[in-house]
């Protein structure tokens, strides 16, 4: 028996399919008294404790949790590392918010010591909130990505990140050139992509801040390396969309700009998509691209309500994003709380199991990593959480009134936040203890 074999006993819940495709009941597995067995950083068994315990060696170390729920680690499909220091900046919508707050804050990452300091805070914050994988925007400076990957590597986290490419319509102190962005991205890819559990994402900020030459080179990087990610923003704000039409009059619309430069594909994640039309959803789905749904940001920046039912109609891959610092919380539980309200305002519902799916398996599918993360099937990475039913007095009291796991899950997502995350495990290692 390998020394690293351990078992965790608690209520255990994970998504196994999209409720929109298979219905709610077939979308999850729940073990009221479950057991999760971890071998060398991977899950080796999952089931009812009564079935699995007799098959395990008598001396195996078992951690038994009362009043707790084990779930897969959360997956944040859109977040900005260099905006950690500007969450909750007052008063502006997207374009003025970028100029007033975002660009000055990101400029500080020219300093590697600053990048190191914030990367450390940022990763601790992810883990405190139960996020074990994130698709991360760095700043325009390569060192922002180096600092992040250095810190993520030390903890053996599965993370995806890229340096922003931005060669126009931003302050001089924060722009690269088409050529320098290509070369710097390439150097980061060579250094980090596929190293351990790290992956690289080609990261043109959004169409307005890239010249056609830069977008061409971003597309070229994607053809040069297998399995690279691409992340950018799309159709978040009405003024932004008008601006894209002015800058690219020859294109049919916002998505067509990215399509023209060959930035759509199975590892491409577009943040927001609040104002996408039906045809654009169809094209995203056809190319296997994904959308990151960022409800706290879309509320905070006054961007609008994402139409999840339309995305579902097109079988479009959707993950959940905090979009910190446009978003106001690192917590995917709080993000789901807001996602529920987005649906309410559109006369629709977000079931607790769809919510769980969005924060875990849906995110994994958006990132094409469902064979590794987002669920607790044997053979996947042991990235999981222990959620504490008694994290706050109100949560504890409210959960006592819950009659079943659906109610309990919904309450966790409504009242829960970082305090709810008792422990976070990544590759079988305890990486956060409340
Ligand atoms: N569009 C371009 N850059 C950004 C950014 O940093 N945050 C958000 N929310 N939207 C953007
Ligand atoms: Zn963003």
TrEMBL record:
It catalyses: guanine + H2O + H(+) = xanthine + NH4(+). Its cofactor is Zn(2+). Gene3D superfamilies: Metal-dependent hydrolases, Urease, subunit C, domain 1. Pfam families: Amidohydro_1. Keywords: Hydrolase, Metal-binding, Zinc. Transmembrane segments: none annotated. One of its GO terms (molecular function) is guanine deaminase activity. GO terms for cellular component: cytosol. It is an enzyme of class 3 (hydrolase). This is Guanine deaminase. Catalyzes the hydrolytic deamination of guanine, producing xanthine and ammonia. Pathway: Purine metabolism; guanine degradation; xanthine from guanine: step 1/1. SUPFAM superfamilies: Composite domain of metallo-dependent hydrolases, Metallo-dependent hydrolases. Residues 70-431 form the Amidohydrolase-related domain. Binds 1 zinc ion per subunit. The gene is guaD. One of its GO terms (biological process) is guanine catabolic process. The keyword Coiled coil does not apply. Belongs to the metallo-dependent hydrolases superfamily. ATZ/TRZ family. Its EC number is 3.5.4.3. It comes from the Bacteria.
């Amino acid at each position: 028996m390998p020394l690293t074999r351990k078992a965790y006993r608690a209520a255990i819940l994970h998504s196994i399919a999209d409720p929109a495709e298979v219905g709610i009941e077939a979308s999850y597995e729940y073990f009221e008294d479950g057991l999760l067995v971890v071998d060398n950083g991977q899950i080796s068994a999952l089931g009812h404790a009564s079935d699995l315990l007799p098959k395990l060696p008598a001396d195996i170390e078992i951690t038994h949790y009362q009043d707790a729920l084990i779930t897969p680690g959360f997956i944040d499909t859109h977040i900005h590392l260099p905006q950690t220091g500007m969450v909750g900046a007052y008063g502006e919508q997207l374009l003025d918010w970028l100029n007033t707050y975002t660009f000055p804050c990101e400029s500080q990452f020219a300093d590697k010591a600053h990048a190191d300091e914030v990367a450390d805070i940022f990763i601790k914050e992810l883990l405190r909130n139960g996020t074990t994988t994130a698709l991360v925007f760095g700043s325009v400076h390569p060192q922002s990505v180096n600092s992040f990957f250095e810190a993520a590597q030390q903890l053996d986290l599965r993370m995806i990140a890229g340096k922003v490419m931005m060669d126009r319509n931003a302050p001089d102190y924060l722009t690269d050139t088409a050529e320098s962005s290509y070369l710097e991205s390439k150097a980061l890819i060579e250094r980090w992509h596929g190293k351990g559990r790290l992956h690289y994402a080609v990261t043109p900020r959004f169409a307005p801040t890239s010249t056609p030459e830069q977008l061409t080179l971003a597309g070229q990087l994607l053809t040069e390396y297998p399995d690279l990610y691409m992340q950018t923003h799309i159709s978040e704000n009405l003024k932004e969309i008008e601006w894209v039409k002015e800058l690219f009059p020859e294109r049919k619309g916002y998505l067509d700009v990215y399509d023209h430069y060959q930035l759509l594909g199975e590892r491409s994640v577009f943040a927001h998509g609040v104002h996408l039309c039906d045809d654009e959803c169809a094209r995203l789905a056809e190319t296997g691209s994904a959308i990151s749904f960022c409800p706290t940001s879309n509320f905070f920046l006054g961007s609008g309500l994402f139409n999840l039912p339309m995305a579902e109609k097109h079988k479009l891959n959707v993950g959940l994003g905090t979009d910190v610092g446009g978003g106001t919380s690192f917590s995917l539980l709080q993000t789901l709380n807001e996602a529920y309200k987005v649906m309410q305002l559109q006369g629709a519902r977000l079931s607790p199991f769809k919510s769980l799916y969005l924060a875990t398996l849906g995110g994994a599918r958006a990132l094409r990593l469902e064979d590794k993360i987002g669920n607790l099937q044997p053979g996947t990475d042991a990235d999981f959480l222990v959620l504490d039913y008694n994290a706050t007095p109100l949560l504890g009291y409210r959960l006592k009134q819950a009659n079943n796991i659906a109610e309990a899950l919904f309450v966790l997502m409504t009242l829960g936040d970082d305090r709810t995350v008792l422990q976070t495990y990544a590759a079988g290692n305890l990486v956060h203890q409340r």
